Amino acid sequence: MLNVQVIPAKNAEKGSEFCSELGVHGLHSGRRRTAAYARVSTEKDEQLGSYEAQISYYTEYIKSREDLELVGIYTDAGISAVNTKRRDGFNQMVEDALDGKLDLILTKSVSRFARNTVDSLTTIRKLKEKGVEVFFEKEGIWTFDGNGELLITIMSSLAQEESRNISENVRWSNTKRMQDGKFSLPWSSVLGYEKGADGLPKIVTEEAETVRLIYQLFMGGMTYYHIAKHLTNAGIPTPTGKKVWKYMSVVNILKNELYSGSKLLQKSFSTDYLTKTRKQNNGELPKFYIENSHEAIILPDE
């Protein structure tokens, strides 16, 4: 009786998991124009280290293969994978592939590609129609394989569920922080305050004078539009450092309880963990009003 035994390789070279016959999966037998996609979701040091390692690994691997031609390494750093709208590197890669510049895309895993099942499958099908294959290293999935789409659907669904769990955990954590009276601000766009040593708003004297001026002008009868024009003509920079004031910037400052030394939290909330769409909180979720949380610039009565 025929007896076949498989003796596994002892010294497999790094990258051999990509299979020694990449051409078998393609639509042609020549060198495949190849790109890789690398992404990390945060800008923390350990994540950036992984990001750089991915770039180095794929660059070296593709260059070492005679059957592959390196077109480029497309990257996104500090960008969530839940949807693809804000991932410039990813979108450029797909655009180049659809324009006929690529034959093969290598990436670390399904979750690096997209945690949204719909986005993942839609993109893969578009690429497949153009003869562009994707290989997911961690899962060992080739999109041209017969079972490729089924496996990707399963893995993408698992990754999407992971994103949902992470989103719920983050929401719970944020709610707990608000209940404890803790909050953070987009400091670079807040006029009059900076982040203090205790994490709470600390008055920036010169900017605080601008805030007081806005309130004085408004209480004196000046409209939002004319206040914005006055500040622009006076050469006073906007909260983000621009030269020209928009009337809505004035409105936002006049309506912000922050300047009275208090803070209202959860004014808006995310309605969908996939799209990150935000909605004004009209009572759907609790709000948290923290009174006398920091030094006021404007008297509460004003």
CATH class label of the largest domain? Alpha Beta
Mean pLDDT: 79
Number of domains: 2
The chain-level structural class is alpha/beta
Largest β sheet strand count, sense and barrel closure? 5 strands, mixed
Count of DSSP E strands? 11
Based on the structure given, which CATH architecture of the largest domain is correct? 3-Layer(aba) Sandwich
The DSSP helix count reads 8
Radius of gyration: 27 Å
Low-confidence stretches: 1-7, 11-24, 43-48
Topology as H/E string?
A: EHEHEHHEEHEEHHHEEEE
At the fold tier of CATH, the topology name of the largest domain is Rossmann fold
Q: What's the CATH H-level homologous superfamily of the largest domain? A: Resolvase, N-terminal catalytic domain
Distance from N terminus to C terminus (CA atoms, Å) equals 96 Å
Strand order of the largest sheet: 2-1-3-4-5
Strand content: 15-25%
Q: Could you please describe the fold and organization of this structure?
A:
The protein is an alpha/beta fold and 302 residues long. It has two domains: 136 residues, Resolvase, N-terminal catalytic domain (Rossmann fold); 110 residues, Hect, E3 ligase catalytic domain fold (Alpha-Beta Complex), CATH 3.90.1750. It contains eight helices and eleven strands. A five-stranded mixed beta sheet has the order 2-1-3-4-5, with helices on both faces. Strand 6 and strand 7 form a beta hairpin. The longest helix has 32 residues. The chain is elongated. 27% of the residues are buried. The N terminus is likely disordered.
